[in-house]
Structures are given as structure tokens and as C-alpha cells.
């Protein structure tokens, strides 16, 4: 099981420093999602991320900044995915970009382009960061292997208490957001706890 992270939707103090520390702790991929951001603030954040870690960053907004920073991971929201042409996706893919997207209904997997390398799906559990944003899955939910067109990453309300459930539900990974950023000063410690738990789960499978 993979462990990914998503940025806080708002800019927070010392965010780049925290991001660099998360990568030093072994974070394999961070999705920077700032839906209300302007390009200047987004660029400023990226400029403070150590160059060695930029290949582990996927950006949700301001895709035009990818070339400036050598970023090769682009995320398309559900709305953007439905408006972008296959030709554009093919060009990005042939240009070496790793593409990801989001779905909120597993039936969408049937129509999802194979040009995407993985997709987020959620909310799995009740959101930590969004009050009233309820999880959509039952406790005994299970993703049948045959419907997995591409890897599916669970998102929403994931913490150390329910991480094993993500594995049991047959997700390919977990994306953490609220657990990291509800107390940014504890983000590194929270990540360490989750990372160790994921390592334990993965070792248990072998």
C-alpha cells in the first residue's frame, strides 16, 4: 500500500519547510492542491521546495508552472478531466508527464482514460478537515480486483486508526490530508506514525 499526501487547501506558515521535512522523512508523493490560489503564491511555494523533491510533487492548479519547475506530475480534478481532450492528455503523457485524477463514483472507472496512472476516490471516511463531509462507504466495502482499471487511492478521513481498513477495502494506497494539517506543527510526527503503520501493513503481506 502506498502513502500519499495532499496539501492543505490554504497556504500555511512555514509550509515549504514542512513539505521539505516530509520528503526527508520518506514521503513519496505530495499533491499540492490550492483551489483558491493565485499563480504568484503558488509559484512562491514551489520555489521554496528543495529541487531534489520536485519530482515527487503533483500539482492540481496552475499546470503552466510545471515547466518552470520541472514538475512532471499533473492532477486533473473530476471537472477538469471531463473538459480536457484526449489529444491534450496524450500529448502530456508522451511528454513524460504522470497524470492522475479523481472520481467520486466507482462506476466512472469504466469510462476513465487509461492515460491516467491512478485516481483518488472518496470520501472513504468522514472528513477530518471538512466539517459535515461524510464518508460514502460502508464498513464492509471492498473493491473487486476486476474493476480496477488503474490503481485507486482512498481519500478522506484517513488516520492511523482506520488505515488498516483502507488495505482491507482493497485500495492501492491512502492519501492523507486532515491528519497532517489539522495541527501543522505536528505534521512530521503524524506522518511518521502513518508511515510506520503502512510499512507494518506492507510487511505483513509478504
Amino acid at each position: 500500500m502506498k502513502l500519499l499526501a495532499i496539501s492543505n487547501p490554504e497556504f500555511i506558515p512555514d509550509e515549504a519547510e514542512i513539505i521539505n521535512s516530509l520528503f526527508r522523512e520518506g514521503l513519496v508523493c505530495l499533491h499540492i492542491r490550492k483551489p483558491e490560489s493565485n499563480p504568484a503564491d503558488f509559484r512562491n511555494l514551489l520555489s521554496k521546495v528543495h529541487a531534489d523533491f520536485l519530482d515527487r510533487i503533483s500539482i492540481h492548479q496552475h499546470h503552466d508552472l510545471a515547466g518552470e519547475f520541472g514538475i512532471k506530475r499533473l492532477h486533473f480534478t473530476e471537472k477538469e478531466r471531463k473538459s480536457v481532450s484526449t489529444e491534450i492528455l496524450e500529448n502530456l503523457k508522451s511528454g513524460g508527464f504522470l497524470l492522475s485524477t479523481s472520481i467520486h463514483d466507482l462506476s466512472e472507472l469504466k469510462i476513465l482514460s487509461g492515460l491516467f496512472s491512478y485516481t483518488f476516490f472518496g470520501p472513504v471516511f468522514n472528513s477530518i478537515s471538512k466539517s459535515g463531509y461524510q464518508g460514502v462507504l460502508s464498513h464492509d466495502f471492498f473493491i473487486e480486483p476486476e474493476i480496477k482499471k488503474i490503481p485507486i487511492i482512498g481519500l478522506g478521513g484517513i488516520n492511523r486508526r482506520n488505515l488498516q481498513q483502507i488495505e482491507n477495502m482493497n485500495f492501492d494506497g491512502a492519501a492523507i490530508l486532515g491528519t497532517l494539517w489539522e495541527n501543522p506543527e505536528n505534521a512530521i510526527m503524524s506522518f511518521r506514525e502513518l508511515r510506520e503503520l503502512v510499512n507494518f501493513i506492507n510487511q505483513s503481506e509478504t
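The radius of gyration is 16 Å. The CA atoms of residues 9 and 36 lie 8 Å apart.
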